[in-house]
Amino acid sequence: MNPIRTLSPVVLAAALVLANSARAEVILVDTLGPDNSFNAVGWTIGTSSNIRQGPSFVTPDTPGLFFSGFETVFSRVSRRPNELVIELREDGGGTPGAVLESFLFLDVVSQAASPSVISASSVLRPRLAANTQYWLIASTPTSNQFIWHLNELGEFGQLTPHAFTSGDAPFSVNDRQPMPALRVKAGVIPEPSSLVSLGIGLVLVGGAIARRWRSRA
Description:
By secondary structure, the chain is of the alpha+beta class. The chain has one domain: Jelly Rolls, CATH 2.60.120. 21% of the residues lie in helices and 42% in strands. It is built from two helices and 13 strands; from the N terminus they run H-E-E-E-E-E-E-E-E-E-E-E-E-E-H. Strands 1, 2, 4, 7, 8, 10 and 13 form a seven-stranded antiparallel beta sheet that branches. The protein has a six-stranded antiparallel beta sheet with strand order 6-5-9-3-11-12, with no helix packed on it. Helix 1 packs antiparallel against helix 2 (192-216).
């Protein structure tokens, strides 16, 4: 019996365990309606005034989370260019702070007659502190105009602090604004104790296989 071939399923099982741990998701925000439904109206992004705005969200009192991605709904008013940017930002004293990750949507957003559900998966996977406010801010580097569609979960939807700016002005914050149609997801970082237990299990299984192989040699 070849011990390398015998250990391969064990290594594969370990990889699957780690992959499943990394894929475990926590939904931080979910204001998309049934079948990803949304409101026909929304916030303006872009135009010649360079309007930038977006909502905040607060993480739960859970350590060991990282930002994994989001889904939301946009449409565009003008034809070209079709370039939208959404930034994940940390909080800077109650207003949007430093950019943690930026997501570019190039030729993705449909025109206003047919809004698009767009999604992004995080590459950097920045860690999220527990019980902490973060921001998602939309902008466009061009003079294009987009609509960030609001949710339709009730008359006002889920209310959240909202940041707005245009031109070179600093962000202003309104504490009572409807949430856009948005789903924010986080991943769970495996706890060290889980990794230790997995390692011990692999050592025990590997030792048993090695002893079995020696007994047949």
